[in-house]
Amino acid sequence: MTALCLLFISLSFALITAESSVYFREQFEDGDAWKSRWLESTHKSDYGKFVLSAGKFYGDAEKDKGLQTSQDAHFYAISSRFEDFSNKDQPLVIQFTVKHEQGIDCGGGYIKLFPSDLKQEEMNGDSTYNIMFGPDICGPGTKKVHVIFNYKGKNHLINKDIRCKDDEYSHLYTLVVNPDNTYEVKIDNKKVESGSLEDDWDFLPPKKIKDPDAKKPEDWDEREKIGDPDDKKPEDWDKPETIPDPDAKKPDDWDEEMDGEWEPPMVTNPDYKGEWKPKQIDNPAYKGKWVHPEIDNPEYTPDSEIYKYSSIGVIGLDLWQVKSGTIFDNFLITNDPKLAEEVGNESWGATKDAEKKMKDSQEEEERKKREEEDKKRSEEAKDEADEEDKDEEDEDEEDEEEEDEEDGEEEGTDSKLKDEL
Ligand SMILES: *[C@@H]1O[C@H](CO)[C@@H](O)[C@H](O)[C@H]1NC(C)=O
């Protein structure tokens, strides 16, 4: 084989591997047409409704439309199908945006990726999935990004803590799973976690275990220090802890017959030295800490294809929300991390600043409105107070008049009496 031929082969190989596939993309930019692509599960009769909305604030009224949860305290279950594929020998990239514009208290913001044999109308919390990925918030205690893989029929949670965003803006979540069994999690196109699947999940039993046949020898001395055997307790060490108070005197009016025999109160003995301990010296027999020898775990079998799913065909939102209002948008499933980054830049990246600006100006307006209302309310309160003061003054005057009248009557009777006398 000639060098040129080799070069050609490697070039075309590079071209083939560089080819990118988009397995699924959903931007919700064609009105109600999404309803033909997404199917609500009927497993329960009271799933919450998803509506198409860009929300209360957005960067672009059309582009930022996505699926919004619209009913508080509901389960949601909706999914969309695409052509079945396997991520064998290729990266798998899952990406979407989540916007908790309602100020979420407790609720899921994650997606699930299912094998294509999922019955969409039956999808529910127990449906077998391949991957669950995305933010989950519940109170101040739970604010994490889930990365759960189904491996040989069992779901495995990541053993690292990845914090999710908990503000009210749109955020881009990306998971990259590579065929070399490594992964990367990105938020807003920035890496927040990465590593190896084998290390960060407990898919496989540990490579090494403690040798069950190894035992610490009986005479293994782990004491670094010992009491000096040559050290002896001084003869005069032992003294009572308390003694009769030498300064106490029997009171003059003590009556032995009435009060019994007088005894001085007990006080702490200043000569008491506590328990005697020999001085500590280096233990000449010290052997160091015994380390349990390890052996290869017979249960461990390496797996170079932990990352691999033979069938991926449905993406779903299967979650619970207390306070609704979350908007999901810009779904992308591809084998090309670079493309995903670009798409993220062009969608989330292009509207995020305008979204923040709109929210800021709404908040500014609300603040002004509140201030004006407060001002109006305090002016009204002042006017009312003035009115009340006036009323009180009038009442005072009336009271005084009444008193005058009463006085007059009395006077009248007096004068009447006088006249009669
Ligand atoms: C995405 O945007 C960031 C920030 O502007 C930039 O650094 C990065 O190169 C962009 N990525 C792609 C693939 O365009």
TrEMBL record:
Disulfide bonds: C106-C138
Composition bias, Basic and acidic residues: 208-252, 352-380
Residues bound to an alpha-D-glucoside: Y110, K112, Y129, D136, D318
UniProt superkingdom: Eukaryota
A Pfam family hit: Calreticulin
Ranges annotated as biased composition (Acidic residues): 253-262, 381-412
Keywords associated with the record: Acetylation, Calcium, Chaperone, Cytoplasm, Cytoplasmic vesicle, Disulfide bond, Endoplasmic reticulum, Extracellular matrix, Lectin, Metal-binding, Repeat, Sarcoplasmic reticulum, Secreted, Signal, Zinc
One term under GO cellular component: cytosol
Alphabetical list of PROSITE patterns matching this protein: CALRETICULIN_1 (PS00803), CALRETICULIN_2 (PS00804), CALRETICULIN_REPEAT (PS00805)
Subcellular location: Cell surface; Cytoplasm, Cytosol; Cytoplasmic vesicle, Secretory vesicle, Cortical granule; Endoplasmic reticulum lumen
Binding site for Ca(2+): Q27, K63, K65, D329
Recorded GO MF terms: calcium ion binding; carbohydrate binding; unfolded protein binding
InterPro entries, A to Z: Calret/calnex, Calret/calnex_CS, Calreticulin, Calreticulin/calnexin_P_dom_sf, ConA-like_dom_sf
One GO BP annotation of this record: ERAD pathway
Region Disordered: start-end pairs: 196-280, 341-421
Signal peptide: 1-18
Subunit field text: Monomer.
Assigned protein family: Belongs to the calreticulin family.
Protein name (Swiss-Prot/TrEMBL): Calreticulin
Organism, scientific name: Ictalurus punctatus
